Amino acid sequence: MNDQISALKDDISFMRSLAQAGQGGPISGGAFLVAAGGIYGAACLAQWAGLHHLAGLEPSVTQWSFLAATAVWLVIWIALVAAQKKRALSGAAGANRSFAIGWSAVGAAIMVNVAAVWIAAFKTGDYGLFNTLASSGLAFYGAAWLVCGAAARKRWMVITGGGSFVLSIGLALLINDTAELLGFAFALVAVLVLPGLHMMRQAARA
Question: Which of 8, 54, 122, 126 has its CA 20 to 30 A from that of 25?
């Protein structure tokens, strides 16, 4: 246990040194968070509307909303990466790198978790396991915010991370209820869209 704690401290110290190298400038990447939160939040609302036969939508169509959202997200992600390469923010290279490392690791973890849940669902026939993805995803987001907040020494990121954990537990209480979709949409706005907009404003001022 002591070795694990020591290794975690070393990892955070490494990311903090990267962040401190460019602590004077803003952190980019807000557009990625806004896009991801907005796209998947819209998918949640579309699926919820389909389940309740609202706005002319049907479950047979909206059940594919998350796959469609992923396709749209990949296209936008590629465009944002290309745009970011053309517009580097001076004075914040270290902070941007630590932010990118943290969120890239979380993105990989989420994809592995999704794959693992799919495998478990098909093997056991318990497709209700898919309903755990929203709660676990928010827990991963919380981890990313806590690590980035500790590295960059930004309290609002740490607070956002704590909020992500609280929302993760809240969604677990809504599991197997269509209200979980509305809760997840709200959570995505709270922990991705709003923080992303804040980061974009800071970058624009620079």
Answer: 8
Does residue 153 contact residue 147 with C-beta atoms inside 8 Å?
no
Tell me if 199 sits within 8 A of 27, measured CB to CB.
Answer: yes
How far apart (Å, rounded) are the C-alpha atoms in residues 61 and 75?
A: 21
Alpha-carbon torsion angle 30, 38, 191, 118, nearest 10: -110
Q: What residues have CB less than 8 Å from 44, skipping those under 6 apart?
A: 65, 181, 182, 184, 185, 188
DSSP characters over 166-191:
HHHHHHHHTTTSTHHHHHHHHHHIII
Structure tokens at 41: 């939040």
pLDDT tens-place string over residues 125-140: 998 898 899 999 999 9
Q: Any idea what the Cα angle at residue 153 is, between residues 172 and 113, rounded to 5°?
A: 30
- Span 95-135, pLDDT tens digits: 677 788 888 889 899 999 999 999 999 999 998 898 899 99
C-alpha to C-alpha distance for 142 and 152, rounded to whole angstroms: 15
The Cα–Cα gap between 26 and 50 comes to 40
| Contact criterion met (CB below 8 Å) for 148 and 132 | no
Count the alpha carbons within 13 Å of 189 in the hemisphere toward its beta carbon: 10
